[in-house]
Amino acid sequence: MSIAATTARQVTLATGKSKDKTPVSLAFLIALWFSMFFGVLVLLALIVNTAIDGSTRFDSELLTNYASIVRPESSGFRAGILGSLWLMVFTALLAVPLGISAALYLEEFADPTTRWNRFVEVNLQNLAAVPAIVYGLLAVAIMALLGFQNAGIVLGGALALALLILPVIIITTREAVRAVPREIRQGSLALGATVWQTTWRQTLPSAIPGIATGTILGLSRAIGEAAPLVVVGLAGSVLFDPEGVMSRITALPMQIYSLTSNSREELQQAASAAIIVLLVMVLGLNALAIFIRNKFQRSW
Amino acid sequence: MASATSADTFPNMSSLGEAHVDNERRLPAKPVNPVMETRDLNVFYGDFHAVHDVNLSYGRHEITAMIGPSGCGKSTVLRCLNRMNDLVPGARVDGEVLYHGQDIYEKRVDPIAVRTQIGMVFQKPNPFPKSIYDNIAYGPRVTGMKVDNMDDLVEEALNGAALWDEVKDKLKQSAYGLSGGQQQRLCIARTIATKPDVILMDEPCSALDPIATARVEDLMLTLRNEYTIIVVTHNMQQAARVSDRTAFFTARPDETTGNRTGLLVEYDLTSTIFSAPGDKRTEDYISGRFG
């Protein structure tokens, strides 16, 4: 039977127009392209428009001067940039140890079948969806409990931002820890290592690139937030550098927010220039995260 | 105990029938003073009865092979022997696992201490993402073993696993640069660096090519002189080539639930199992009629 089938088979392959190129499929393809371009165009329009507005102010005074209403043409964002950097550092100091510890507990020590741990699990997911402004309110409440009259200081702002990015850090750390193969843990335990030693010496070091990536992405989200800082009561402008955790500060998004509500032309331009500075900082952090991911990514 | 020199030569890989190296070891019919024993061992995963009433004894400086079709519980039994089953959520062990007469499942026994005495080599080579040197030194470091000179210990362990000559110039390089067979021998070296008494091997060659397999089998025969080896294998020829005793397991479906429970069918000298098995199921399996 098989011999007959192979010899008898006569095939002519269809030629001419491909069925993949009918008008309907082409129209569909164009619709897909348009959707993609829409997303990219919005970003491009935003950046180009803002850059043109702020182009007159791309000078060193933008970075070195304090904000000034009296001389708006040389107004700068020194206080905001330094404030944002200080906030970054203290946000990281608060959120990273807490986030990594919580993630390690959930992945390596908690029994996922107990009702309590399932409850924690569900709430972590919800926590990531809480609006940023709510964390600002929570930070004000905590600062009041700690006895601070004024929450608009480095500690208050960092607390709000740390609460904001804590779920992000926990979730990305858990994913990084989960990506470490079980065989590595088993190999370590089979040699007589304790669960603690296995976590510290095998799991955590192997997960660090993933944890770093997640942390940086969390921080880059925090650096652009204004809402929780408004609630905490950060100033729209200060005329001195931050000096410690109790120092009153402003942040770049706060300065942008307060300047855009001002109608003077020069201040609008300064705000546009500051937006570009902020975008550069955020994109820089994202680029760093991508670099770390590509450079240290391990295939098991 | 009979000399093992003849068994240390390159293992015969050609056929089942000619490979009874243990014939010349003249072992007693039952292990005398066994290193480990299981008594009425039953293992459950939640409601699932994985292994039923296993009674086995493992002789000192012998290689015991556990064979059988998939799902017959042989790996489960192996993982009970150094309490690796503790790590599986919902796992429960009934019966006794004796190590030098002491039940390792007794409440006051620390599973960490058990695992320093009873090492394990896994199916897939699982070196740590560290240098070759640090892979070996890891065990002694975490267990707090007293080491006079770590360099000597690393060399000794790598020599013991017949890997030293291949890696002595790249001890600081990542273990991931080694071939699969070298990685598996590194894992064996890592295990013997902690100076265990017993080495458990869970299908140690199933991820390796025939040449790497032959080298690991060769190594097992050498290691027998110093350690007690218990190996789970899918490969009957391997059991015939390297083991002194063979335990054959099979799976029996439960009448009501249909879950397959593993049980021990027959346990004897490997030469007996492969030439004159006492149970029809063993004979069917070995002759390839089933499984």
UniProtKB/TrEMBL annotation, chain A:
Q: Respond yes or no to whether keyword Glycosyltransferase is given for this record.
A: no
Q: Which InterPro entries match?
A: MetI-like, MetI-like_sf, Phosphate_PstA
Listed GO CC annotations:
plasma membrane
ABC transmembrane type-1 domain residues: 81-289
Q: Might you name a Gene Ontology BP term for this protein?
A: phosphate ion transmembrane transport
Q: Which GO terms describe its molecular function?
A: phosphate transmembrane transporter activity
- Keyword terms of this UniProt record: Cell membrane, Membrane, Transmembrane, Transmembrane helix, Transport
Q: Where in the cell is it found?
A: Cell membrane
Function of the molecule: Part of the binding-protein-dependent transport system for phosphate; probably responsible for the translocation of the substrate across the membrane.
Name of the featured protein: Phosphate transport system permease protein PstA
Which organism is this protein's natural source? Nocardioides glacieisoli
Q: Which gene encodes it?
A: pstA
TrEMBL record, chain B:
What spans are recorded as compositionally biased (Polar residues)? 1-15
InterPro entries in alphabetical order:
AAA+_ATPase (IPR003593), ABC_transporter-like_ATP-bd (IPR003439), ABC_transporter-like_CS (IPR017871), P-loop_NTPase (IPR027417), PstB-like (IPR005670)
The organism named in the record is Nocardioides glacieisoli
A Pfam family per the record: ABC_tran
- Please give the biological process terms from Gene Ontology that the record holds: phosphate ion transmembrane transport
Look up keyword Nucleotide-binding and say if it applies.
yes
Record carries keyword Disulfide bond: no
Where is the ABC transporter domain positioned along the sequence? 36-276
Q: NCBIfam families annotated for this entry?
A: 3a0107s01c2 (TIGR00972)
Q: What is this protein called?
A: Phosphate ABC transporter ATP-binding protein
Extract one GO cellular component term from the record. membrane
